[in-house]
Amino acid sequence: MSQRTAQRARRLDLSEAGIVEDTSLAGDVARRLEEDILRGTIRPGQRLDERELSERYGVSRTPVREALQRLSASGLASARGRQGLQVAQFSVADLLDALSVVASLEALAASQAARRITQEQRTVIEAAHAACGAAIAEGDYDAFYDANIRFHDAIAAASHNRVLQDELRRLSVKTAPYRRAITFQPGRMPQSQPEHAAILAAILRNDAAAAAERMAHHVSLLSEGIADFLHFVRSSDHAGLFKDEA
């Protein structure tokens, strides 16, 4: 059986199982772009050049072009006149609205995780939490940010809610550069660890209400002093994250 035939057979098997999986090259490029945005390698407002991206990912410009169309359709990229596509930026007001939605979705994920988590998933979340603690002890902001992503992703996975995971993923990628900037705000990294511990404890004792409440509090910037955060961002090298107000 040829590789192409095998891939087609796999897609049919997945379709019959009710699972949608994008195995195309353009889909792979789109996912890699999302990961680069998620981890701050590509920043809001940055121009998305087809030639540069094809060289970065080692593919032709055709799948890159299709991947950019997908990002544009999902709101992760936006057109800016002759400059072409760029990574989408939030205004301050839109960021606050987006983060309030993320807080609600993360709270729902934590609530469902508390009811549906498997033993294996408990181990994954505990490991991510421990990695966050190790990064804090080392003062390693980048390692903490990566471990923090794993912690939240593990909770979303433990919800066993595919629709929720898809929506949360889309919004998380859009807000990630801003949440990453929060990591570098003085005192924020060590403050996150006891918040994570409270979320983890609620999930492990299957307390859905407490898990949702703790997660909503953890994610929501409204309870963390938004004025301080905005002052920090605007006075740092993260100032370019925001779109100019209309």
UniProtKB/TrEMBL annotation:
- MF (Gene Ontology): DNA binding; DNA-binding transcription factor activity
Matching entries from CDD domains are given as: WHTH_GntR (cd07377)
Q: Which UniProt keywords apply?
A: DNA-binding, Transcription, Transcription regulation
- Pfam families, per database record: FCD, GntR
InterPro entries per record: GntR_C, TF_FadR/GntR_C, Tscrpt_reg_HTH_GntR, WH-like_DNA-bd_sf, WH_DNA-bd_sf
- The residues covered by the HTH gntR-type domain are 23-90
At the top level, the lineage of the source is Bacteria
Name of the protein: HTH gntR-type domain-containing protein
